[in-house]
Amino acid sequence: xxxxxxxxxxxxxxxxxxxxxxxxxxxxxxxxxxxxxxxxxxxxxxxxxxxxxxxxxxxxxxxxxxxxxxxxxxxxxxxxxxxxxxxxxxxxxxxxxxxxxxxxxxxxxxxxxxxxxxxxxxxxxxxxxxxxxxxxxxxxxxxxxxxxxxxxxxxxxxxxxxxxxxxxxxxxxxxxxxxxxxxxxxxxxxxxxxxxxxxxxxxxxxxxxxxxxxxxxxxxxxxxxxxxxxxxxxxxxxxxxxxxxxxxxxxxxxxxxxxxxxxxxxxxxxxxxxxxxxxxxxxxxxxxxxxxxxxxxxxxxxxxxxxxxxxxx
Length: 313
Hints:
The chain has 313 residues and is of the alpha/beta class.
């Protein structure tokens, strides 16, 4: 089954409520109509000048409680909650929506900041990150052409523990959203000792930490991308590979590599990308590229609805 069809069908079975705080964007308005028409989710769509005053005050008080140790005043909290982005995030925090999707007219840093401040970071991982669901046409690698790429949007230069947590978060999304057994590859320019450097050492340290944190996780590294996804190459470069070139979750060593990698695959291989999905928080949300299509918004809403079924998504 096509990845998009599968995701939308799973979302219909849950029928969650998703907030879309960018009504001023025509793409968001059109996406909201499709989401409602196809029964993918219940939509709460709004923007500047459309916020419920009573709820705004309720959310301001709760936001103040969340952030007062950071030195924010109640008046400042009220000012923050005039922003529909933070209103949507607090709406999700308070359970008035099951998740939110934004980014059509906001930067990733804006969306991530509101999500982290309002939803909170999962205490088990303590790292917010992002991933993309990638569907590559006419491709036999990964899960019949389907992959999870991470981190492509949030952590610029992750340390070993952050890489381990990014891998765990991405694997959880692969399992919950796609329904696949995650096979996680920590990518590098080296395959199991073919090169020596601090970057390789960092990847190996991340591998050890991930195995310690989640012993049942199928994870391997350091791996060049061909050794990770091509069985014939894995046999030559790393015959003892845990999954023999069958990786479906690819963890990049830093944000530069991740962002470049997903965009290359998207443009050159004509892949369908869904995301960035923000991971590692207490409740789900998805970011959008400011160049997103209407279909991108619909699919991110569907993914967010699926993730809303689980705590600490």
